[in-house]
Amino acid sequence: MSASLFSLSGKTAIVTGGTRGIGQAMAFALAEAGADIVLIQRDESNTSTRDEIISRIGRKAWIHVAELSSRDAIKGVIPALTSQGLKPEILLNCAGIQRRHPSEQFPDEDWDEVSLPLFSTEQMVLVPFRRMRKLMAVVGYFPTGRRGSIINVASLLSFQGGITVPAYAASKGGISQLTKALSNEWVSKGINVNAIAPGYIATDMNTALINDSNRNAGIMARIPAGRWGSPDDFKGVIVFLASQASSYVSGEVICVDGGWMGR
Q: How much is the pTM?
């Protein structure tokens, strides 16, 4: 019984930001738990996640090309998938980018680029939901019972301001609040909405911090777990939030941070 609570067998998940790092690890975890995966990418130049899901894990996987800065492109995602007979029940929004500048020097173009995840998360969530109301069979929308899971990726900077990352903090703060607001309206309609807030994780996005000996030492001194996190640390929490194991969990921002926020 307990194991079946975490099974995603027969489900289909849409994943943004799944080509590397945390997003890739979570895409693998969803597939390992039994889900088929639709990867939303701006192009097909990177097929490594799709190929590994198919060859190593043995699940179905597709790449759907869509530019997440385009409302029209996002509007086309669900119609394209349903035309193939797919009915996604899980949506993982993990696309993200980081730029670091002193606040008073932050370039407008970098601000716009870093703010894109809030826009794309909003659109990837709201556009499918509007279609759900019409189709009643997309992303698991049903009047009663939990059938759908939306998981957004927030950050510790949803709670803290950080240093030289004002655009990222603003974007991730918005994602946290959007998660709570949508949960308030949608959990009664069978869709749970939650977010994951990564701590300091050893990925390409944090290379500058890892290579800065002073910042690295300060970060390590505050992490109770005594180490930077790794993308694999997110496999358990994503399966939990996507599965029946979390059927009464909604509107939460779960920190995966080695104890940072409890310090």
A: 0.88
